TrEMBL record:
The lineage of its organism: Archaea, Methanobacteriati, Methanobacteriota, Stenosarchaea group, Halobacteria. Transmembrane segments: none annotated. Residues 1-33, 241-336 are annotated as: Disordered. PANTHER family: BLL3975 PROTEIN. Gene3D superfamilies: Immunoglobulins, Zn peptidases. It comes from the Archaea. It comes from Natrialba asiatica (strain ATCC 700177 / DSM 12278 / JCM 9576 / FERM P-10747 / NBRC 102637 / 172P1). Keywords: Hydrolase, Metal-binding, Zinc. PROSITE patterns: PKD (PS50093). Residues 1-25 have a biased composition (Polar residues). Residues 331-415 form the PKD domain. SUPFAM superfamilies: PKD domain (SSF49299), Zn-dependent exopeptidases (SSF53187). This is Succinylglutamate desuccinylase/aspartoacylase. GO terms for molecular function: hydrolase activity, acting on ester bonds; metal ion binding.
Length: 415
């Protein structure tokens, strides 16, 4: 079943003549040269930064960002960087020609890791945006654990107002655009600072610039590009309505010709039954096409679009709306195990005692050791001995006494 899509028009009501729109290039004369567009409304307001194309095979993200570049706005400033990673876009791959994943080059507390990442961060720092939105795609649908894929999700920081805005946005988009409950959008928290995935742009912007940040993922399989672009644009519009369109309801032409039938309105989305072909995306994948996979950009602590407290994917029951979710954290002995290469049959100790439950106590520590997503070990610490060479994913899921959950992961490399 497909979601209806409409031709898109500029969402604001301000006359184009009253706007200031300009552009400039970064890394001019290099393979990384790309364009930033700045749209300023005549009325003061917040600054919004929208970025797409960090991964070159996630077509809907940068296509939507290109269309958002042309929006008229009623207040504030809209800064857009649609084609953030032109080399990867040209190659239609997740990574650039040197195998670098751009969305792992923004470490917190230190300088970006590449020339392109530095140039992008310089732009963001200069404009100091109030809101940052990063548009991505995944081959699998988010079902609480990023191992299954992260499509149809809006990830966000742990501030209550940000979480509520993400949940309200998922509700609105699901009601208006989604007629298949398996495609309903969910929301999820970012991983903790010391957990994987790390080096994400939105993490750095949230924690260093105190911006409200969102990482939006659409599922690229079994949906036309036009539909996925509509989803992205509608989500950005809803997330920025108060900032960019404070006086008039934006009219961007996304609404379906007819309202969705009442019986087709999505319930809470079930666990993904048709996940991606691969349970572990390859950051160095050179496969081409539109089916982007940003799986490891996916975060933890899912909550359903219509209830910020969460559904069965991250709770054992009803959790109060103002309850702060726990944070799962893995420490290792030897330290920094995710950054090392181990010999076969070497033992690594995984320690979850640094996990936290701000609004209660942790009552369960579950481990998935077999790289298959099943939780087959329990306890605050476990010892892992891996004989086979290659990469081995480990998941930790913690549950607090209110039934709220959080999940994190790391990858052990044996060679």
């Amino acid at each position: 079943m497909q979601t209806r899509a409409q031709d898109q028009s500029d969402p604001g009501s301000t006359d184009e003549a009253n706007l200031s729109r300009s552009s400039f290039t970064i890394l001019e004369g290099t393979d990384g040269e790309t364009t930033v567009t700045v749209t300023e409304a005549p009325t003061d307001g917040p600054t919004v930064f929208v970025i797409g194309g960090i991964h070159g095979n996630e077509t809907a993200g940068y296509t939507a960002a290109e269309e958002i570049t042309e929006w008229t706005i009623d207040a504030g400033t809209l800064v857009t960087l649609p084609r953030a990673n032109p080399v990867a876009i040209e190659r239609t791959t997740r990574v650039d020609d040197e195998g670098v994943d751009l969305n792992r080059q923004f470490p917190e507390g230190s300088d970006p890791g590449t020339e392109l990442a530095t140039a992008i961060w310089d732009v963001i720092s200069e404009f100091d945006p109030d809101i940052v939105i990063d548009l991505h795609e995944s081959r699998g649908i988010y079902a609480g654990d990023p191992v299954d894929g992260v499509g149809q999700a809006i990830f966000h920081s742990r501030r209550n107002d940000v979480a509520q805005l993400a949940a309200d946005t998922a509700d609105a988009v699901n009601e208006t655009y989604i007629d298949d409950s398996n495609r309903a959008f969910q929301t999820g928290y970012y991983s903790a600072p010391d957990n994987d995935p790390s080096g994400l742009l939105v993490h750095k912007a949230s924690r260093e610039l105190n911006a409200d940040t969102f990482l939006v993922e659409t599922v690229s399989t079994q949906n036309e590009l036009e539909t996925r672009v509509t989803w992205h644009s509608a989500i950005v519009e809803h997330l920025t309505t108060d900032a960019l369109f404070p006086t008039d309801e934006p009219d961007n032409g996304h609404e379906p010709d007819e309202p969705l039938d009442e019986e087709e309105e999505p319930d809470d989305p079930p666990a993904n039954e048709n996940g991606p072909d691969e349970t572990e995306p390859d950051d160095g994948d050179d496969s081409s096409g539109e089916n982007g996979d940003d799986g490891e950009d996916g975060e933890n602590g899912a909550d359903s679009g219509d209830n910020a407290g969460g559904d069965d994917s991250n709770t054992d029951g009803d959790v109060p709306a103002d309850h702060t979710a726990p944070t799962a954290t893995i420490r290792t002995e030897p330290a920094n195990a995710a950054d090392r290469t181990f010999a076969p049959d070497e033992t690594i100790t995984l320690d979850a005692t640094c996990s936290r439950a701000p609004d209660g106590e942790l009552v369960s520590y579950e481990w998935s050791i077999q790289s298959d997503g099943t939780y087959d070990e329990s306890g605050q610490t476990v010892d892992v001995t891996v004989s086979a060479t290659g990469e081995h994913r480990v998941l930790l899921r913690v549950t607090d006494d209110a039934g709220a959950r959080d999940t994190t992961e790391l990858t052990l490399t044996v060679n």
